[in-house]
Design a protein that fits this description.
Helix content is about 25%, strand content about 25%. The chain has 13 helices and 16 strands. The strands form three sheets. Strands 7-6-5-8-9-10 form a six-stranded mixed β-sheet, sandwiched between helices. α3 (about 145-155) packs antiparallel against α4 (about 185-195), α5 (about 205-215) runs parallel beside α6 and α6 (about 240-250) packs parallel to α7. The chain is globular, with a radius of gyration of 24 Å.
């Protein structure tokens, strides 16, 4: 009798579950100016969403909608906003108004903020604490090994007056390197190289120890910052996000900021990393490649490290005689109550040296045929003083100088006479980036502007691209189109 083949009793290998966490949100709605003329939000300098989504697209993965934050896509790029002429005001605010590229019956308002730059050589002394997650989940090539290489790049930028401490956390927190002068780079690099991953993740204890070391080496009038590098998978100790936010918010009062750097995939906690940076008066970036590490920790070191304006808030009042509707693009988790604009106790975003911030509004002028909201039967007439005005809107901006408790106000009108016949190249590129973010979230906001038009708008700009970031963006648009549309037949829209 022939022997029956033996069954393969080896269990199939299971792929680890994807437990990445993203905060749920909805796009800002269209607002009727007559009902809600005010729009108030905190500025945002984070870029982590763009780099993280780029990682997914490069791996052939469609990003979840909540991973896409339009303002972080837009602010990933430099638009050449003009810098302030002197340091008396730490930044300059500019605006541009032009027809929206996807619908000439609407307008696009671009607000640009540019901080004064400080040469690296003249940056004040830095007291930095590297807070590094060495738990078992970090034992992947795109986590701890990439993290070590990233921090090595930053270490090589240090000067004798700088101080570096290294704190690690896994099941418990520990001090790997006490405050060490920046010219002892060999010791710092050796300490980084010895790090190994293993154990669970007690992030709360790590944060407490890191702040304790930052206070021990505190530099008056210097840069005092904890740099937390993690995949965000806190699973022992203080694991409640609310408790961790409270812990970080309490520490920022001591003048020590928190930057968060996200690494890896599969269990990346974007929601926690982004929120901790927000309440810690810092910024959040995602490191997917050594090139991105160089961008964040070398090229943008001044803006990442040195804060020149704190609690920066924007409030735009639209004129209902000129603007029927408006929509803020992105910044959904930065929207503020209108009464909090002048409340100096309410926290907001910070601007670093040389940093750029860009915000976009889509406007529907009065009389346009492109209104999205239905006409009201019992409409409200605009205020008499607004009817004859040539003002489209009034832009107000509040900020605090570092160490100050009272804010300063900048106010500027946006005039109908500023309307350009065509958007400038910077606005066209920013519009393409905003439309790309919308397309990744489902594509409902840009009047059928398809993938080809988005790529064409980006490709047509003649902006500086010495690092290849704009060229890479065009490639990402094509990659996203292929992944989302697949091989199904393409039907040209009216705008294609």
């Amino acid at each position: 009798m022939a022997q029956l083949p033996q069954a393969n009793l080896t269990p199939p290998q299971q792929q680890p579950a994807n437990t990445e966490k993203y905060a749920e949100r909805e796009d800002n709605p269209v607002r009727r100016t007559a009902d809600e003329p005010l729009s108030t939000f905190s500025i945002d300098v984070d870029t982590g969403s763009y780099a993280n989504v780029r990682r997914m697209l490069n791996q052939g993965q469609r990003p979840p909608a909540d991973a896409v934050r339009a303002e972080e896509f837009i602010n990933y790029f430099d638009y050449g906003h003009p810098a302030p002429a002197t340091r008396e005001t730490p930044f300059r605010v500019t605006t541009e108004l032009a027809p929206a590229p996807w619908n000439a019956q609407r307008q696009l308002l671009m607000i640009g903020i540019k901080g004064y730059d400080v040469p690296k050589a003249t940056l004040p002394p830095a007291n930095l604490v590297f807070l590094i997650d060495t738990s078992g989940s970090m034992d992947q090539p795109d986590k701890l090994p990439l993290l070590k290489s990233a921090f090595s790049l930053l270490t090589r930028q240090l000067r004798p007056q700088d101080r570096i401490s290294i704190v690690v956390y896994a099941g418990s927190a520990g001090l790997v390197l006490p405050p060490t002068p920046g010219d002892r780079q060999g010791e710092i690099l050796d300490a980084l190289e010895r790090l190994q991953a293993g154990g669970s993740t007690n992030g709360g204890d790590g944060i407490r120890l890191a702040y304790a070391m930052a206070k021990q080496a505190y530099v008056k009038d210097g840069v005092n910052r904890v740099i937390l590098a993690t995949d965000g998978d806190f699973n022992v100790g203080t694991v409640s996000q609310d408790a961790l936010e409270t812990l970080v918010a309490d520490q920022r009062k001591s003048g020590i900021a928190l930057t968060t750097l996200g690494f890896g995939q599969g269990n990346y906690n974007d929601a926690l990393s982004e929120k901790l940076a927000d309440v810690g008066d810092g910024n959040h970036a995602y490191i997917d490649t050594l090139q991105e590490a160089r961008k964040v920790l070398v090229e943008e070191m001044g803006s990442t490290m040195l804060t020149i304006a704190r609690d920066v808030k924007i409030q735009v009042e639209f004129n209902p005689a000129q603007v029927a509707e408006y929509r803020l693009i992105g910044y959904e988790n930065r929207v503020l109550k209108h009464e909090d604009f002048a409340n100096d106790k309410v926290d907001a975003g910070d601007i670093g040296a040389g940093h750029e911030v860009t915000a976009l509004y889509e406007l529907t002028p009065v009389g346009s045929t492109a209104a999205r909201l239905p006409a009201l039967r019992y409409g409200t007439k605009p205020a008499p003083q607004a009817v004859g005005s040539g003002e489209v809107a009034t832009l107000k901006l509040r900020y605090k100088r570092p160490g100050a408790s009272d804010s300063r106000l900048i106010e500027t009108p946006i005039l109908r006479s500023q309307l350009r016949a065509q958007p400038g190249e910077a606005m066209r590129f920013a519009a393409a980036v905003a439309a790309f973010a919308d397309a990744l979230r489902g594509g409902s906001r840009y009047d059928g502007w398809g993938w080809d038009r988005i790529a064409a708008a980006a490709r047509s700009t003649r902006l500086d691209d010495r690092w290849g970031q704009r060229r890479e963006f065009v490639g990402l648009v094509e990659r996203a189109r292929q992944q989302i549309e697949g091989d199904k037949p393409r039907t040209a829209s009216v705008s294609d």
